[in-house]
């Protein structure tokens, strides 16, 4: 690694500081080797004890704000953190304190501290962290990056969460340097990208304490929730480049967060239903990202197109796993309930019991793909300036022109749906998904009739696809002739039923105009 140690400087505090760091989870089998690698760099060892404050109703967490007092060696530091422009960034306000007591007057006239000042009387300790940190600064191609290996725990009440992570923080220079350095370590030690902050994990743990949950199932469900996006999270688009980056990062975040759960961070083991949900939501994130990139494709740079291509094979691999879940948890049980004769079915292995899925999610190849996509989005070179300049004044008009063309293509193919081949029908469903996902963040109330028509159509086309996936599996796997013929006949009849329903909603879609 072409990096050299930098002498550690004493803490100096600037208000505010833009913190940009990438966090990676360290699996158990990698911890000894990673610690030895960091130790070889002659790091500083620093014990850290932090106390985090919030209200009983989580006012700060809801405002994406964290307030802590942390003992760094023999010095207390009060820190306010607020959300930055992307997943890797935070705005920090740091102040040295003589004692472990809060001084909220430090935030007078600071807009970012409004949540803190508004709820000051209700603030109280909610959780704490105790960390042993090995940290060292490296010079990487002219940029300064701090590596911090953290081991310890987060505690709320009598519950603890382990902390085993390594952070790559940009101190000075180009953000690409943290990706260059972290990529080398990710590959060597099998690390997993982890977008959760300590404050995010501590807040969840404190909620567990509040809920009084005691069973292992309840604890796991609360501590490791599948990551969903809500409509209020979608960004407004006032600038084509920034609008694309904000949207794509949101979807990539959904992929990464669910992928880390599939990869088994913290030794987490989900049950069958939880794991299937993680896989489904990760695939939704992939589909959303693909849809977003297709929308912005007229202005996309060559490097961004390469990042798009890199994701494709993993989309297919996880799609095959999702099909296994579909068969085992949904369509084949429904077939048996319908009266399938013959011997009991041996159901396909679900993703939750298939070690290959966890290995794929945690694999250096997939994690490197996620890292490369993240790095590309933060490079500032996603779209071509010479292409975007012409539409910057009215980005919404340009984007809606793309979506209007997509709808026209869908409507043309929908007119003769029953005559399309099975492959063409599936492709039509994917086009409808793409348009619907784009309208999630780009549409207005005037697009609601179109969105609803797309959603209804997608529902029935999805049922048709489910029948086709199950039909193929039964053809290949049912050896009993009577059982196979019964299953194929039932699936064919069921498919025909859904085709009739699909033709009705497609007719409605064909006559739904794109709003002006």
- How much helical structure, as a percent, in the residues? 40-55%
Low-confidence stretches: 1-14
Number of strands: 10
Report the sheet-strand fraction: 15-25%
Kindly, what is the distance between the CA atoms of the first and last residues, rounded to a whole number of angstroms?
55 Å
Arithmetic mean pLDDT: 91
Which geometry do the CA atoms define?
A: globular
Cα gyration radius (Å)? 26 Å
Number of helices, where a helix is a run of at least 4 consecutive DSSP H or I residues: 16
* Helix and strand pattern: EEHEHEEEHEEEHEHHHHHHHHHHHH
**Main pleated sheet:** 8 strands, antiparallel, barrel
Please give the order of strands in the largest beta sheet. Answer: 2-6-5-4-3-7-8-9
What is the SS-derived class?
Answer: alpha+beta
Write structural notes for this entry:
By secondary structure, the chain is α+β, with helices and mostly antiparallel strands. 51% of the residues lie in helices and 19% in strands. It has an 8-stranded antiparallel beta barrel. A hairpin with a 5-residue loop joins strand 5 and strand 6. Residues 1-14 have low confidence and may be disordered.
């Amino acid at each position: 690694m072409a990096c050299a140690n930098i002498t550690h400087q004493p803490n100096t505090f600037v208000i505010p500081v833009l913190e940009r760091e990438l966090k990676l989870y360290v699996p158990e089998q990698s911890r000894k080797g990673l610690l030895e690698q960091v130790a070889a760099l002659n790091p500083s060892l620093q014990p850290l004890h932090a106390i985090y404050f919030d209200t009983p109703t989580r006012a700060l967490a809801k405002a994406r704000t964290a307030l802590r007092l942390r003992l760094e060696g023999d010095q207390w530091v009060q820190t306010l953190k607020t959300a930055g422009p992307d997943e890797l960034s935070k705005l920090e306000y740091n102040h040295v304190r003589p004692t472990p007591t809060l001084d909220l007057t430090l935030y007078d006239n600071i807009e970012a501290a409004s949540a803190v000042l508004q709820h000051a009387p209700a603030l109280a300790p909610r959780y704490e962290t105790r960390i042993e940190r090995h940290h060292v600064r490296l010079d990487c191609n002219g940029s300064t990056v701090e590596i911090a290996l953290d081991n310890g725990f987060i505690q709320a009440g009598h519950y603890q969460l382990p902390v085993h992570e390594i952070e790559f923080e940009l101190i000075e220079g180009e953000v690409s340097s943290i990706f260059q350095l972290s990529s080398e370590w990710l590959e060597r030690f099998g690390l997993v990208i982890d977008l959760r902050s300590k404050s995010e994990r501590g807040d969840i743990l404190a909620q567990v304490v509040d809920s009084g949950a005691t069973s292992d199932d309840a604890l796991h469900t609360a501590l490791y929730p599948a990551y969903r996006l809500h409509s209020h999270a979608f960004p407004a688009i006032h600038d084509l480049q920034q609008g694309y980056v904000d949207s794509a990062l949101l979807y990539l975040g959904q992929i990464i967060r669910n992928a880390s759960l599939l990869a088994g961070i913290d030794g987490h083991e989900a049950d069958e239903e939880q794991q299937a949900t993680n896989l489904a939501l990760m695939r939704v994130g992939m589909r959303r990202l693909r849809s977003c990139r297709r929308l912005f494709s007229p202005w996309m740079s060559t490097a961004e197109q390469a990042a798009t291509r890199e994701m494709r094979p993993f989309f297919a691999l996880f799609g095959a796993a999702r099909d296994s879940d579909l068969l085992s948890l949904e369509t084949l049980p429904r077939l048996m309930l319908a009266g399938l004769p013959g011997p009991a079915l041996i159901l396909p292995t679900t993703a939750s019991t298939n070690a290959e899925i966890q290995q794929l999610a945690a694999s250096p190849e997939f994690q490197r793909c996620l890292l490369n996509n993240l790095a590309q989005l933060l490079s500032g070179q996603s779209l071509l300036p010479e292409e975007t300049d012409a539409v910057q004044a009215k980005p919404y008009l340009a984007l809606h022109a793309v979506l209007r063309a997509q709808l026209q293509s869908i409507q043309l193919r929908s007119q003769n749906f029953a005559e399309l081949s099975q492959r063409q029908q599936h492709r039509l469903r994917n086009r409808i998904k793409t348009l619907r996902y784009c309208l999630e963040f780009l549409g207005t109330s005037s697009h609601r009739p179109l969105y609803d028509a797309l959603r209804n159509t997608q529902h029935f086309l999805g049922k048709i696809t489910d029948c086709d996936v199950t039909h193929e599996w039964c053809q290949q796997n049912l050896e009993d002739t009577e059982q196979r013929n019964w299953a194929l006949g039932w699936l064919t009849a069921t498919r025909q039923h859904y085709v009739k329903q699909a033709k009705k909603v497609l007719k409605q879609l064909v006559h739904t105009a794109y709003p002006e």
